[in-house]
Each structure stands twice: as structure tokens, then as C-alpha cells.
Here is the input.
Amino acid sequence: MADEQHPGGSERAADLFVAEHVRKSFKAPDGNELLILDDVNMRLRDGEILVLLGRSGSGKSTLLRMLAGLSQPSAGRLLHRGAPVDGPVPGLAMVFQSFALFPWLTVLQNVELGLEALKVPPAERRQRALAAIDLIGLDGFESAYPRELSGGMRQRVGFARALVINPDVLLMDEPFSALDVLTAETMRTDLLDLWAERKIPTRGILLVSHNIEEAVLMADRILILGSNPGRVRAEIPVALAQPRDRESPGFRDMVEHIYGIMTSRPAAAVNVAQRGATTIGHRLPDVPVNKLAGLLEELYALEQASGSPRISLPEIADDMHFSVDDLFPLIEAVELLGFAQIADGDIELTAAGRLFVDADVQERKPLFARHLLAGVPLAARIRAVLDERHNHRAPGARFRTELEDMLSEDEAVRVLETVIDWGRYAEMYAYDGNADVFSLENPGEDEAEGSGT
Here is the structure.
């Protein structure tokens, strides 16, 4: 919320951007519709920092591009200050994850580019560019080339280039994710200081992120997007006073709350922990078995150290230095296979998960095989087809074709690759990549043909 003068006021603010029932889809090469966003509603209010939080595949960047007028929705409508967005939006600047600097231009010349496009006279252009460079702390580097700068300094040039046009709205697409931890923290703090001290004329900031702590640190409001397709799962106001202390109880409670929302499933979704994936076209997390095993071992170690079977997901993320995109596929995999269960932002090993950790390398394989057969219908189908055929062989194209009835071509390839990796580890079947053929040349033992725990 904000008053008419500056962020932080108490009167109800106007809407800078509005998205109403926005849908975005693309035509896949195989002719099927690839749905990216579905029925998305959002508002960016005057005087606020709004964070779009979600995993890769939730359509965050796609929504950002549509708000900027660089792409059109397939359905629904977008408004900027009440007017339809039907092309590039004036008074708007974007900062990207990649620094997107021209390597043959100096810092000053890179910052001047936006003003040059706006036909600003050379003298004024230079004056404003120098002021923006000074504002973001790069004075003295005006004549340097991007190759001479660190990653953090190059991103500062990106911010200067965005701020020099005095943007009404600043759109940022994961601008800190390519930076090291300390540099990213410094830049977040610097941006918040510029915002709070009215050193930039920007009326609203929309930040795309997959970092939960970053969202809580910066946002006045957070929209959580689900994935495949992207839909708004929750809207969360953040009432914590700035500057925010990451170690404060309020901050940690908010982080825990968001982890709980992002790991919960909508009521209509399948509870994979209890029933497994119900079709061979279930989207599997792209997780190698060694990382899955590493997570289970880390959970067991934390359980033993704390004396509690339930471990908070933020604690796991901090301990293993994982982002949302690193951690969430892992926890989906162990839950899908019945080795752990998720509840209210916590994770707990199941009895099978503890058995897996306690087992040696050879004992783990049949246990993994039983859970793979029970939890992943595609793996069970591959094994059943191989068992039924007299030569115990089947082409991989057969299963890819079946998957493409339910998934995009790229997703079908990725899911099959995951099942190949998991099945090889379990010694349920072999796969010849050159011939694209599954076989039982290296079959598992009898216990791999059973089911249950």
C-alpha cells in the first residue's frame, strides 16, 4: 500500500498493472497446445514491491514479458494504468538475469543506450547517465568495458541502464540469481535503500524470483505461482518492517509458511505419497539417484542430530545450500517413491526411507526397485512389456510415443530419461542408447519383480 507521494503510505494505492484471467499457450512442434499460464489474476499497486515467486516452469518470465508488451496473452487482458497493453509499455524498464551488456561499449555508453533510443540530446544523455552510474555506485568505472568488471559490477550497469530512463515501473527477472551470495545480498540491500530513500522515481517494482528468502526480504506482497501450467496458488502480504532481519521469528515464520504452501498440493491433485502417480504420463522430477540418496542421508543425519523426525524445509535448504529449483524436485522424488513425506513445510523420512539409508549399496537396489514399481507406472509398464515379450526387448520409441499422447515431445523425452536412470539403478531393465532398446539383459533379481515396502 502507498499514499499518492511515496511507497509506505496508508491510503489505498492505484493499480499500475492488472492481469485479468490471463492465459498463455504455445503451439508445440508436435501440434499439441503447450499451456504455460492459466487464469492468472494479479495487480501491481502504486508504491509497492510485488514478488512473483515460483519454480522454473511456472511461467513467471512469460508473464513478465507480457506485462512489458513484448508478448500477447492467448486469452484474458492486461492493463497498464487502466489502458490495454497492446505493445511495448512506455515508462517501463527491465533488468534481466543475464547482464545483457554490449561488450564493445563502455559502462557509460551502455547506460546511455536507452536514452539514445528515446532521442535524448547528447549533453543531457551524458549527464543523466553519469548520475545513474554514480547512484548505483560505479562512479570511476565510466570508461571501463564489461570484460573488466565483476559479475556484480556488470549487473549494476544493468540497473543503471534501467534507472537512467526514470522508469515508472521496474520489472526484474531474477536479477540476482547469477551473482554470488554476498554480491546478491549487497545489491538487494542497495536497491531497497534507493527505494526507501526515494532516490529513484519508480512507482512500482515487480520482481520475479525462485528464492523464498529473497521474496520475504524484499516484497510488500508475494504471489506464489504453481507450475505446469502456471496458476496463482496464494497471495501473501508481508507486513514485516524494513530493514528485515532474516533471523527474526517473524521472518522465519513467513519463510516456513511459504515453504508449506509451495509443497502442498491443490485439493484436486493426486496425493502421490499415498497413491503414487496414476498414469504413465506423470511428470517426474528430473533427479539422479545419487542426489536422491544424498538427500535421504542428509535427512537422516539431521533427524539424529535434532532428535526429531520432522525437519523443516528451510533448514534443509540452508544446510545443503539449495535453491527452490534444486530442492523441490528432490523432495518430490523421495515422496513419490515413498521414502519421505511432506507436511506443513516439514519433511520426514518414512520407515522405507530409513531402511534405504541403513542399507548397503546392494541392499538399496531391490528396495528402490520395489518402490519404483509401486510409485511410477511408467517404470512398471516398461518392466511388464519386457516380461511379456519372448525376447524381453522393446524399442524406446514405443514408450515415447505413448508419453507424447499426454506430454509435450520434450517433456516425454525428459520423463523417459529419468525412468531409464532410475530403472538402471534398480537393475529392473537395461537400456541401449545407441539402439534405443530396452531389454532384460541385466535384469534385477526376483525381489525387483515384487511390490510393496
